[in-house]
Amino acid sequence: AKSAGRRTYRFFQPDMDAQVTARRLLELDLRQAIIDGALEVYYQPCLGLQDNKITGCEALLRWRHPERGMVSPAEFIPIAEETGLINQIGEWVLMTACAEATTWPDDINLAVNVSPVQFKSGTLALKIVSALAESGLAANRLELEITEAVLIRDDEAALAILHQLRDIGVRIALDDFGTGYSSLSYLQRFPFDKIKIDRCFINDIEEPEGSSCIVQAVVNIAAARDMTTTAEGVETKQQQQLLRALGCSEMQGYLFSPAKPAAEIRQLFFSHAKK
Ligand code: C2E
Ligand code: CA
Ligand code: CA
Ligand code: CA
């Protein structure tokens, strides 16, 4: 490994070299974080747009770094994926979140993000089965969020895994819909239960030349194929109203609540239910 490192070293620009070093350091820190228990799962509630009831929560990883403070998952997930650490981390998130969700009211579901690396690992179905068994969470309360990245390249293999997961009884959501290689044909070929419409389409939904017609189209396709839709990143009342009018099923965003620690979320269920 050392000689390979030396061989590639020459091709790096000085700033690239610094970047590589920074990534290595982050990787080491991340390994230590797993040992130290510095990772935490936060939960962001998701609301029905018609009745304003909490329908579920998405588990979102947090890293409390001793010097850097909170490190965003957007920063460390890619490194965890490159190094394969995501398998270990992802399994821990799944176990932790499933156990937490058993303390919630029965009608509140749990959504967990699954990295393409986990998806392709060949052991995902097994890990899901054991997380459900160990926690006692009903399979139909668990939703896995996957991105299109798992669908490209090997259709057949991806489809086989999706069917395996379906057989377990968990639901599957297509995350970040509309970004990346997004192709409408994915919606036809793969068995999703839910489409999560990416924040970028919600941002400008109120503008005259904005994305409301795209959101409308996605909502229509989803309805025709018996899927529900969740709008991500809803920050204003106006966005909420427009999404409701467009027939979108659920919303998630800072307007109602950001992701919060487990204890705060439990309190929120209680106070929200009383209203
Ligand atoms: P994502 O799955 O698309 O999650 C939504 C992100 O949007 C979260 O960022 C959430 O905090 C943020 N968000 C929610 N509502 C709003 C809003 O109203 N406005 C804005 N501006 N942002 C909002 P977060 O928690 O930083 O996570 C970033 C990404 O990291 C996630 O994107 C997901 O791809 C990944 N991630 C987080 N936790 C996990 C995990 O346990 N496993 C895997 N594989 N990936 C994870
Ligand atoms: Ca997600
Ligand atoms: Ca998303
Ligand atoms: Ca995203």
Automatic annotation (TrEMBL):
Residues in EAL domain copies: 23-273
Protein name, per record: Diguanylate cyclase/phosphodiesterase
Q: Which residues of the full protein are shown?
A: 613 to 887 of 892
